[in-house]
Amino acid sequence: MNVKAPILETERLQLVSLGINHLSSEYVNWMNDPEVYAHLESGGDYSIEKLKVFLLDVEKSSILFWAIHIKENGKHIGNIKIDPINFKHKYAEYGIMMGDKLEWGKGYAKEASLSVISYCFSEDMKLRKINLGVRSQNIAALELYKKMDFVIEGLYKNHAITESGYDDVVRMALFNPAYE
Question: How confident is the model at residue 162 (pLDDT cuts 50, 70, 90)?
Fold first, then answer.
């Protein structure tokens, strides 16, 4: 099934399809900032050219991938995606990256996430479950997901290699109440 990210709006945010128009030195800086990529699967080795290739690939792909913008000023502050999607079993994998550290702690990640989840559980997508993996050392994200009613489904022991050794990955899920 071919999917593309529709524009989603919240009180303070606009989520638009991520693409080449998001190519910027600020974005490259996020991807090279150890605080930003500490819990991500990529980062630390980005150039403007590498980011350009990534964004062109995103544009060509059939995935739900949004850039998160502050409505008031249009500022790009991060990204959120739902990929891959299993249409047979009606579940998908969630991921988010809040790149602009000046905007951390303002509730934007939760606001964007709730909007995307609402879309995924709506009549448009009809998913029954959203999955995610989060490193156990990422306390802020774990707390956010618990507040959003994600439940722990499992634990991958020593799954991620970090600068200080290994980290467990907590597998979590949120179920669409329409399927209960």
Answer: confident
Per DSSP, the chain holds a count of helices (H) and strands (E) of 5, 8
Taking 70 as the threshold, does the pLDDT of residue 159 lie above it? yes
Quote the strand ranges of the chain, DSSP E: 8-9, 13-17, 64-70, 76-86, 91-98, 129-135, 151-162, 165-175
Please give the Cα distance from 176 to 180 (Å, whole number).
7
pTM (whole model) above 0.70:
yes
- 38 vs 173, which has greater pLDDT? 173
CA distances from 90 to 2, 11, 58, 128 (A): 15, 28, 22, 5
Phi, then psi, of 125 in degrees rounded to 5: -110, -40
Measured distance CA(59)–CA(20) in Å, rounded: 7
Mind listing the domains of the chain with CATH numbers? 8-127 (3.40.630.30)
Structure tokens at 128: 């029954």
